[in-house]
Every structure is written in C-alpha cells, then in structure tokens.
Write a structure and sequence with these properties.
Elements: H1 3-11, E1 14-22, E2 45-48, H2 58-71, E3 76-79, H3 91-98, E4 101-110, E5 118-119, H4 123-135
Parallel strand pairs: 1-4, 2-3
Antiparallel strand pairs: 2-4, 4-5
Helix pairs in contact: 2-4
Length: 147
C-alpha cells in the first residue's frame, strides 16, 4: 500500500473507543458538573472533554447519536467537572497519531477503579446494541467512510 493509499484509507476510517465513565455518585455529587449528571441505568455515555482527554468531536457525536437512534438506545453525555481532571482513553492518541476520526463512549459506573464498581444491568447490552448499529453498513455513510 502506498502512503497515499494509506492516507485515503485512514481518512475513510473510524475508531470507536469504548470503556466506562463516572456516573454521579450519591455520596459525592459535588464532584460532578452540575449541568451534566450521568446516571447508572440510563444508557451508554458519549464522552466529551474540551481539553481533548477524549477524542469525541462533532462528527463523532453525530455518528453516535445516529447509531443510538438506529439501535433504539437512549444515551447520555459525560462531561467531567472542570475542577477535577479526568482520565483519558486511547481515543486521543489514535486520533492524533493516525489521523483517524475517533469518538469515546462507555457505560456509566459508580465507584470506578474500586473493588466494587457498579453499572446498570441493561447498560452493557445497550452499549453493545449501539456499537452493533455503528458497525452495520448504512447507505447514508457509504460516501463518507468504510468499515
């Protein structure tokens, strides 16, 4: 594959980075952004960060909204509180090093990184359904990228 072929392939590609995000913990509600309150059991998260700790941009947000709508899945946006730095994912690294359009998603967890992480029983299935919808070929995306 030539460098030009590689660049074209990357321009038509997507990276969906999937893991988890913090749900509002009832014992620590002050640690969350007052306008953004992800809740366990209310669907997967679209992870957004202005400091690019997540790679989601407007194109990725639109693609995730379309995938969730197609799967019949409600989703939530996760934006971390600016006064508390958040972790990151492989999304920003993939996006910057390879130039592949990337967005970050996940399930809402309580007590992330503890011995007792908790998620809603339906959230992993909802995430899987939305990802399956993203991976399914559609006529509307054929001209913009390939899987």
């Amino acid at each position: 594959m030539s460098e030009s072929d590689r660049a074209r392939a990357f321009a038509r590609s997507w990276c969906l980075s999937a893991d988890a995000g913090h749900a509002v913990h009832p014992n620590y509600p002050e640690r969350h952004d007052p306008a953004n309150r992800p809740v366990v059991g209310r669907g997967p998260l679209l992870k957004i960060n202005a400091n690019q700790r997540y790679a989601t941009d407007a194109f990725g947000a639109a693609e995730w909204a379309r995938s969730c709508r197609q799967a019949g899945v409600e989703y939530q946006e996760f934006v971390s509180n600016n006064s508390m730095p958040c972790g990151s994912t492989i999304g920003p690294l993939t996006a910057t090093r390879l130039g592949i359009r990337t967005f970050d998603v996940g399930i809402a967890l309580l007590s992330m990184h503890s011995a007792r992480e908790l998620c809603g029983v339906g959230d992993p299935a909802a995430l899987a359904a939305a990802i399956a919808a993203f991976l399914a070929p559609t006529d509307s995306r054929q001209h913009t990228h390939e899987r």
